[in-house]
Amino acid sequence: TGFLWRAGFARPLQVVFKQADSQVMQLDWREKEDLDSQVIAYADEELRREFNFEDPPIRLSLIRTAENRHQLVWTKHHILLDGWGDSILISDW
Description:
Elements: E1 2-4, E2 13-15, E3 24-28, H1 35-48, E4 58-66, E5 69-76, H2 83-92
Parallel strand pairs: 3-4
Antiparallel strand pairs: 1-2, 4-5
């Protein structure tokens, strides 16, 4: 789903797409040092990035930190999911 708010609209209009590409940014950080600080800094940077509301307001980054270890950075706008919806989605994962 996306949201449109253009001149002439009294309020945002929610648009439900028949299909949307779910892009997952895949990063390989196995060679980096101080991974915990790096992941925290990356997540903080993601929180500061603005969303284009004409696209689904969600971003996923999968960071490979070891051969069999990954960190998922899930950034979404509260207009899309609230805490209740988050818990349902996470339990489905």
